[in-house]
Structures are given as C-alpha cells and as structure tokens.
Amino acid sequence: MLKTIKAVGAASLLFVSGQSVAAESCGDVTIADMNWASATFIAHVDQYILNNGYGCNAELVTGDTMATGTSMTEKNEPDFAPEFWTNSMKEALDKGVAEGRLRYAGHVLTDGGVEGFWVPKYMVDKDPSLGTIEGVIKNASLFKHPEDPELSAFYTCPAGWNCQISSTNLFNALKLDQHGFDIVDPGSSAGLDGSIAKANERGEAWFGYYWAPTAILGKYEMVLVDFGSGVNKDEFLNCTSQEDCLEPKVTMYPPSIAQTVTTDAFAVKNPVVYEYLSKRSITNNDLNKVLAWIEDNQADGVIAAEHFLSNYPQLWKEWVSADVATKISKSLTQ
C-alpha cells in the first residue's frame, strides 16, 4: 500500500510540475516498431514527437503482435506499442491490465481497422444501389471474371491469410455463387492491390474484400458495400472467422480495435507522455492518404514522419500542448 501511495504521489508531482519537468525526466523510451506500414509510420511519428517535443531519448525496437505483447507483459519492455490490434490477443492483454502490468492508452485508429466488401466509388456515384449487396447482386454481370466470361468475379483475400476464411464464409452466407459470382484468388497482397488499381485506372467494375487503413484506399476511393445486416459480433467471432463454420450467417465485419498499449511502469514514470499517447488518434481517411504518399514516394519511416508533421499540423497539434507544438514546429525548420 505504501508503495502504491508513493507511486501515485510521484505521478501527481509530475503533473503539477508541468511540461518542463516531464521533459527533463522523460529519459530513455523504447517504442515497438511493428511490421506493417501504418504501425511503423505511427512509431516514427511518436519517436519524433517524444524526442523533439518532450525531451525523450526514444528508440525504436523491432516488434510484432504476439512477441511484443508477450514481452511487454512478462519483461516490461518495450515501453509501448503505438498500434496494437488488441483483438488478436485480447485475453492476455486484458489480464496484463487487470494485474497492473499494462495499460491501454488510447485508440490510435479513431474509427478502428475496417474490413469488408468494396466497390469503386465511381460505380456508386453512377448507381447508388451498388453500395448495397442487393445492388451488386442485381448487377452481377458488370463484374467481369478475368478468366471466364460466363461468371462474375469476387476478389478474395490471398490464400493463407485469415481474412480468406471470413471472406469465403460471407461469400457463402450471401449465396453469391447462386448469382453467378466466382471467387478469384489474387495470389498475393500485391495481386489484390493490382486488381483494384487496374479497375480504377480503367474505370471498370470491381468487387471484393479489402481493409483499411491502407495505401490503396488512399489512392482510390472505394465504398464499403452494405449487407443490410448490421454487425453480429458473436456470429463473426464464433463462426464467420472460423474455418469450420458450416452454416455462416450474413454479418458486416466488426471494427478491429487498434490501441496504444503501454507498460504500467512507463505510464507512472511519464504521465505527460502517457497523456499524449491517450490523445494521439488518426482517422482511416487521413492515414490512408499518408500511406499512399509513403508508397508513391518510397519514403522510409523518418521521412514519412517529417512529411506528416510538416503537412498535417492541424491533426497533430490537437494531441499536444501549445508549448510542445512550438518545440516540434521549430525542430522541423532547423
């Protein structure tokens, strides 16, 4: 109990002392640099803001979902993971939080990760019914199959990915085969991206599975097809996403929660930085645009972070105090 009181007291003093004391006491910080585009971008943004705005000595360490979550829970390192898709190991993370070893700082993706079936926006602009599954089925002949002119194409997730299970189950639940659709495996993520890019560049029809945030949805406007079913989370978790789902029912994909996870020790030591992490959140629409810029310019994380901070001040200045914002802005011009 005495240790708890001392810890709380120390945290309170840091808050009262203000931004300058927090910066001076920030010290060394380790940030998980996860192995996908949006996560590594956010990690570099956090590193820049912590180093230049809060006086930290922030270092990126390679990470991935399972290894990072386990290390943070068992070894108290790294200090935080900026973009953690927490549903992937929710039970273990919740246990770490309950036991006082971890904390959820905030939702880094404002609207969560989005999955579903999509069509190009120019199709919906021309015929709004194509934003619904009924409209897609009614106009199945528009979606030309790349190999069989008698069939309509539904592009699925690449083989071996977990989303292939859910997209196939939903294909069956919607009985799309009975309306002339055939599943087209793009072979890879690049193949799936290529099919979307080709259709958009040519103004052709396209229908299939995809997700956000991604660079491809930053380049091309796509519309999430409404199944008219709403989200049945229990059905999705217990059947739709399971390979042995024998009688799948129609449901939209539930949003995937993407949070910033910190160790409890880091949150206690650096409450002002923890407050920043709790505020730092970006919409899929904004992140899609940044990811598209990164891909088009083949930018690494450092360049991407500086591009974002230089060109999107209206976003990141909402996350920090005016004093910290001034420090960051000044560093960008040096």
Automatic annotation (TrEMBL):
It comes from Parendozoicomonas haliclonae. It comes from the Bacteria. This is Glycine betaine transporter periplasmic subunit. Residues 28-310 form the ABC-type glycine betaine transport system substrate-binding domain. GO terms for molecular function: transmembrane transporter activity. Keywords: Signal. CDD domains: PBP2_HisX_like. Residues 1-22 form the signal peptide. GO terms for cellular component: ATP-binding cassette (ABC) transporter complex.
